[in-house]
Amino acid sequence: MGWEIEFIQDHGIISTTVSGIVTLDDLKKISEGAYIEAKRNDANRLLNDYRKASLHLSISDIMDLPHTLWNLGRRSKYRNAIVYSVNSKNNPDYDFFNTRCFNSSHYAKVFTDYDEAYLWLIYDSNIVSPSSP
Asked: Where does the pLDDT of residue 124 fall: very low under 50, low under 70, confident under 90, or very high at 90 and above?
């Protein structure tokens, strides 16, 4: 498993790119690193690219993930986009996580299109949308 964290200054985004097999312990380390970078850069947008990763999480892990992330530093001020491959064998896991985030009032959403995820992060529907004149 490998991962990189980058700060995209133009839009205040902490971008994390992950590859390989990802366990719950890996996910915790990645998340902690992203939260540290977000705090350091005063950023509240997180972009997690898992298109080249394979999750090895149990249903119980995913069920508890919003709470686990909260304990690691995830707060409601963060807007989080998670991108995964449309061909991923983990599609049901990502869909379940998306539902868990919604039900747990986490401002997170999963996508299979990187550009769509990026746009969702930078445009707040209460302020402006990409289709606004």
From this structure: low
